[in-house]
Amino acid sequence: MTMTPRFITTSVIAAISITASQLATAQSFSERLAKDEALTAADIDTSFSSSGDKAWYERFSFGSYGEAHFNTGDVPDHFDIHRLVLFTGYEFTDRLRFISEVELEHLYSNNPGTDLVWELEQAYFELDLGNEYLVQAGAILVPVGITNGIHEPTTFYGVERNRVETEIIPSTWTEYGFLLRKNYDSGLQWDFAVHRGLEVGRIGGDFNRHGPDLRNGRQKTDSFHGNAATARVKYTGIKGLELAASVQYQDDISRGPQDNSAVLTSAHFIYTNGGFGLRGLVANWEIDGNTAVGGVPTPGSDIDNQYGGYIEPSYKWTFANGMALGVFSRLLYFENEDAPGGQTEYQAGINFWPTENTVVKADWMHEDRTRRDANRGTNRDVFNFGVGYAF
Amino acid sequence: MKHLFRILVIVLALAASAHGEERVYKQPSEFIKSAFGGKIPATSVLNLSGEIKARANNIMAHDYGQARVRHWEQGDRSVWILEEIGKTQPITTGILIEKGRIRSVEILIYRESHGWEVSKPFFTRQFSNASLRDGDRLSAEVKNIAGATLSVRAVSKLARLALYFDSLI
User: Fold this and answer.
1) What's the whole-model pTM score?
2) What are the structural domain ranges in chain B?
3) How many Å apart are CA A225 and CA A254, to the nearest integer?
4) Of the residues A81, A296, A338, A363, which has the maximum number of CB atoms within 10 A of its CB?
5) Are residues A130 and A21 part of one domain?
6) What is the pLDDT of residues A68-78, one digit of tens each?
7) Same-domain check for residues A42 and A73
8) Residue among B15, B88, B120 minimizing CB distance to A127
9) Structural domain that includes position A29
10) Does B63 lie at the interface with A, CB-CB under 8 angstroms?
11) Looking at the domain assignment, is residue A54 inside a domain?
């Protein structure tokens, strides 16, 4: 289409006319709204306006969460401003929004080996397709586990995130990809995501009997190794209960000479009844291929599964002034390349919420490391203290 | 995967450029009509100041930010259309109260992708027959939904606020 001066003039006049017409309508509506007189059904519905009526700053949202930790006991005393996360969102239309989270880890640590890390945690477009379907595209959270989706410090017990959901499910787990979601009136939700896969190991590296370090397989660069797909179903239609299960397939998780496909299966439940809470989760990796030494696969030596699970009862008292106090305990077990033979953890502690957006935590954790058949150590008792916020 | 991703982003951009409707479960006017036999009564206004404003702020745990609240009433019934932010966006909620007890809570407009469970009847029916107890607490126990805590909290606050406002008219 040719942009002649006549075309440009006609377009400008048309735009001015349309704007003037809308402005006139808006003024009369605003006048009626201000006087509350004779509001029509259309007036009432318009007063709870759509995005189209919002100023740009009303479409913008901002949030943050952060936490600082102190660990002591049978570990070196360690103080760490562990994370500061900044959330921004923008609503382009009623149906399309952009969501991002950037994270600063270890803003300050007294451990000289702990460096400041700046990471992208999420950055995706989200589009409502109608009929309770939505799609996400970009750097998305992989739909698996509990902590990977909800990890603000005010939402979980314990100063540190539990080991099953950091070692077996490598939370926080973000991958480039897209996700389709459907919600039902019954409380059922399903997600299907296709995304970048893990990339573990290094060329010439070792895979012990449990294979690779999966957590370090999260590709935190712009590289694109491997493909994966994750499906999850979640049900919240029973009061106080959430049930969820997911399965993930990775076509090749390693850079080594052998193909290492992998399947992750996980399931969890969360139950609350008044102040009582109970949650549990299991996760299991089946990794195809052989153990390796110096990058050379050992024929006939299959990689054993990596797996783990935990159960966590709790009780929370909420006071009239809005403060709350919770107590919890946790029994956890996992087996992976860092703990071949397995490691059991017993944990108990308290959370205190001075306000609904802030939390103070303290817990004791006993690590039974004596059953490890490698990286074995003595049992450890660790005391953790932390503060956190989220808004 | 890279090419598929690029194609999808382009498709999303094109799809979003078309005008779309809000995720509106029920128009506010329809909620009011359903409470009053198909008609909308004259709009009433409750002015918030002094102790009323302070108590509203206490229920919401922040400055409520409104100086006046529109509502619709007839006989023993009142209808309140109130909004509170869940995680990032306001949840437009309709609350019907009769003789000091909640008859129904409906999520009219929900704007976020998380916490959608609060818009479903299996959640909102928990408010039925609830009244306000001492300390402006609900008489009914509303169970939390993991992953929707902020939305559950927002809707619960609005239910308490509506009951308080109803006690003033």
Assistant:
1) 0.82
2) 22-168
3) 9
4) A363
5) no
6) 999 999 999 99
7) no
8) B15
9) 1-48
10) no
11) no
